[in-house]
Amino acid sequence: MTTETRRISDLPPLKLALAASSLQPKLGLALSEPIAIIGMGLRFPGGADTPESYWELLREGREAISPIPASRWDLDAYYDPTPGTPGKMYTRHGAFIRGVEDFDPQFFGISPREASRMDPHQRLLLEVSWEALERAGIAATDLKGSATGVFVGMMNEDFSHLMTDATQIDLHTASGSGLSVAAGRLSYSLGLQGPTMAVDAACSSSLVTVHLACQSLRTRECDLALAGGISLILSPLTSVVNCAMRMLSLKGRCSTFDAGADGFVRGEGCGMLVLKRLSDAIADRDPILALVRGSATNHSGQSSGLTVPNGNALAKVMRAALKSGGVEPEQVEYVEAHGTGTTIGDPIEMEALGRVFGPGRRPDVPLVVGSVKTNIGHTEGAAGVAGIIKVVLALQHELLPAHLNLETPNPNIRWSELPVVVPRVSRPWRRGGRRRIAGVTAFGFNGANAHVLLEEAPAVESASREASSPHVLALSAKSAPALRELAERYARSFSGAGTASPSLGSACFTANTGRVAFAHRLALVASSTEEAGARLAAFARGEVSTGLWTGSGRQRPRLAFAFGGWPRRWQRWPSALFAAEPVFREAVLRCERVLTRPFIETLFQPASSEALALGPGLLLPGWFAAQCGLVHLWKAWGVEPTAVLGVGSGEFASACASGVLAWEDGMRLVDVFAEQVERAAPGLELWVDAPERLGPLGASFSDVCLVGLGDDGRAVYAGTRRAVESLQATLLQHGVRAEPHDTAHALSPEVWRGGLEAVVTRARTIPHERPRVPWWSSLTGRSVEAPGAESWRGPPASVARWSEALEGMVARGLEGVLDLGPGEGWATLGQRGDSVTRRAWIPCATDTGPRGLLDAVAEVFAAGADVAWKEVYRERPEDKVVLPTVCFQRSRYWFEAPATGSAPATSASSGLLSGDPEALMAQLALVEQLSDEQVQALLEGQEGKG
Predict the structure, then answer these.
(1) Would you call 864 helix, strand, or coil by DSSP?
(2) Taking Cα atoms as reference points, which of 218, 215, 206 lies closest to residue 272?
(3) Which of 631, 663, 903, 932 is a good FRET partner for 519, with 20 to 30 A between their CA atoms?
């Protein structure tokens, strides 16, 4: 319990009431914080499946009204042109979304049978909410256990009307239907623990949910909210009811504010918003699309009829919304009206608008009023959010779309006296000195009213970096076809396709941090959207592309960290990482602090020269510190080793990475060893090709010492000039190529022994722990079980048993090796091996600089690792941008009425399973719907044909 909570709990109720009353002005200010709309997902008629396609429909002034599809019901059985005919509807039109029968249950972990029993409202909400989160740059899995609220507006339960036989009820019936379950399933599927509710406020349902979500955010009941609504037309019964009430248009058009308006056309739709407090959205660099400035809801009370709006109540809810947002009426430039197109409702609503927004308004700046119902019909439970999304898009595109079907203005509206105008053609709505603010109104036939005020998004400084630097783009999907489709979508997005493509840095940041990582993966490194788009397009066509990695790991891979032992020269990448990555820099500084001689200025500054002549006294500690930095960096990025392996001086880094030694203690041992090597006399190094093929021949190299792996995968031997030249001659006789190099400090067997003796002496003062990660030795080919000071003692090594070590790690499930350098010696060695060629060999410390490390990150992700992308970008802020969303792989899942007799069942089954093989495969999903009797009849029929 906090101190504040304890003080409140100690106050008597009367004193608490007095304190709260005195703090009311401050509370009012806190409750007026604007709410940011950071993501939108939708399905609306006319093929409007995304905000972009919805905007195209609005911009082009298209009307999405069509005849009622035959897939919904037998229209002729319910149609009668005469209004008032019992049990009939006098309309043949509606506005429908496509694919309500289809779903991708596997994506959400739902069984096919349960999917067929789920109300499509639930299924569509899952899809649209997921897309809204992705468009907000939020990975759904990041929300598990969070205080994220779910507010869903719904008013129809058509799916339950299809269940006309009690024998159709099964264990999935209850959870598959019902308004409350639609919201509850969304929270359940995403693991959300904020307030969750389905709201039935009739036609104002979705606008009420936005109001409730904003209130919940402002009172900090939740930190993120999904709010919106949905309405589907699955049964004829609701339309029959509407026709009995004479609500629907005889002519099949929404003619809002027109003299010929005779009702509305029913429409389908789903819209979900992702909402966050503006202060949090700015801090998180979310894509702010628009702001909710204020909102309110009330009831009409008594009017001329329960289903008739009350103009006074409408005016009150508008004023309440203005007050809650601190907005003056004259600041509002546009209102998205409810606009049902009824002879009673339109004049009442327009009068209320004039009463609230008219006083003080200049005649030359009239209030612009329109209604999206003229485009997509009345989407009922989703009507309010359909209007909100329209306004947000209009603000973004700086254009108010035309209001359709207004031919003769309604004579019952006082057009000459009200300061309003309805745009029959599109009109500009430019961002300028004056903040653009709009209102959205909704009222339900139950008397529930709501009004929401929207404001343009504030201008926020971009964080995007230069476009020429390389970036990793990581994509994933739940299946291979979905991944190819997603890659194709990204390729189109990067091509521009008539719109400005996002910067590559922002796109990669959003895709990597704002998407759930699934099993089928793709990762690439590119320096421009054109380069990334070309590789993605090639992948989508099934072509092989360099700089692109794929994988389908079902679990994170078991990776070993491998450390080479002998750097020939200093490379450029450590200084670049030291400047760019705080985790790397702090690890290197920790290593330097334990030495008496600093090396940062010499090795890790940008002025460091790769041609700088370095002795082992500086070079070996520097490489150890760089490898220490890499280990810490990879761990910060979420990649942990399941085993470690070193060779030569790389054994020191591998011991620390396994947890045997603290990194500071490891540096002390390296320092002692390097000091001994620094005193060594000049001699030769011999770089031997394909050392893994030497076999027993290597046992005769007693006069030289194996000091490690070179950066190109060659073994590096060292000794006196005479010993090395003798070795080279022997190798030549056996057809082994070897290249000698002069060295000022030859690590001969005598020097090696002296160095290890000094290490053992120093190690006796240092605690050694049991390995937390298996530590494999390239000297013995086995894991080190009980390390101690004496573990460092040993004869000069001329034979490396790295093959045995690798075989041992493979036997314990090794799936890949991350080569921490120097160079890519381990990766090159491993790729040549016969027994481990199926493993991933990933270099990350190459002289290609940052690009090499990014290549490694991409390959590790593609192999299945859980990369902590937010940590990768901690020091490289980018903007979140809107990108293509997940590609659902849908099939038909629908509630089918069971057959009532065996004879019809046999006929239906025969029809189902006849035809060509492709048709058969397309319908196999229906087989599980067949009863045992149907299956038996089918088999008997097939037998008879034989």
Answers:
(1) coil
(2) 206
(3) 631
pLDDT at 291: 97
Confidence of residue 85 (pLDDT cuts 50, 70, 90): very high
Strands ordered across the beta sheet of 683-688:
705-709, 715-719, 683-688, 738-743
Tokens coding 81: 């042109």
Q: Rounded to the nearest 10 degrees, what angle do helices 573-580 and 850-862 cross at? A: 80
Q: How high is the pLDDT of residue 463? A: 63
Contact 798, 701 (CB under 8 A): yes
H helices, E strands: number in the chain: 35, 29
Q: What does the block give as tokens for 395?
A: 């603000």
| pLDDT per residue as tens digits for the range 483-538 | 999 999 999 999 875 456 789 999 999 999 999 999 999 999 999 999 999 999 99
| The model's pTM | 0.88
The predicted structure's pLDDT at residue 105 = 95
Exposure b/e, 93-119, CB count within 10 A at least 16 = b? bbbbbeebbbbbbebbebeeeebbbbb
Residue with more model confidence, 126 or 163: 126
pLDDT attached to residue 602 = 86
Cα radius of gyration (the chain): 35
User: What value, to the nearest 5°, has the Cα angle with vertex 141 and ends 814 and 505?
Assistant: 80
Beta carbons within 8 Å of 757's beta carbon, 6+ residues apart: 793
Residue 25's CB: how many other CB atoms inside 10 A? 7
Q: How far apart are CA 559 and CA 556, in angstroms?
A: 9
Tell me the percentage of the chain whose pLDDT exceeds 90.
61
Locate all alpha helices (DSSP H) within 888-931, ordered by sequence: 902-912, 917-923
Asked whether 637 and 856 are in contact (CB, 8 A), the reply is: no
Q: How far apart are CA 90 and CA 78, in angstroms?
A: 9
Burial grade of 164 (CB within 10 A; 0-12, 13-18, 19 or more): exposed
**Composition of the chain by helix, strand, coil, percent to 5:** 40, 15, 40
DSSP string, 777-805: ETTTSSB-SS--GGGG--PPP----HHHH
| pLDDT at residue 95, as a whole number | 97
Can you tell me the distance from the alpha carbon of 243 to that of 175, in angstroms, rounded to the nearest whole number? 31
Nearest-angstrom CA–CA distance, 881 and 877 = 13
Strands, E, within 659-704: which ranges? 683-688
* Residues forming a β-bridge with 196: 150
Question: 414-437 burial, b for 16+ CB within 10 Å, e for fewer?
Answer: eeeebbbebbeebeebeeeeeebb
* Of 649, 648, 676, the residue nearest 758 (C-alpha): 676
Backbone φ and ψ for 643, nearest 5 degrees, come out as -165, 160
Predicted confidence (pLDDT) at residue 831 exceeds the cutoff of 80: no
Q: Which helix (H) or strand (E) holds 861?
A: helix 850-862
Measured N-to-C along each axis, helices 650-657 and 616-636 cross at an angle, to the nearest 10 degrees, of 30
Q: Which amino acid is at 690?
A: A
Work out the angle between the directed axes of helices 529-540 and 480-494 (0-180°, nearest 10): 150
8 Å CB contact between 311 and 302? no
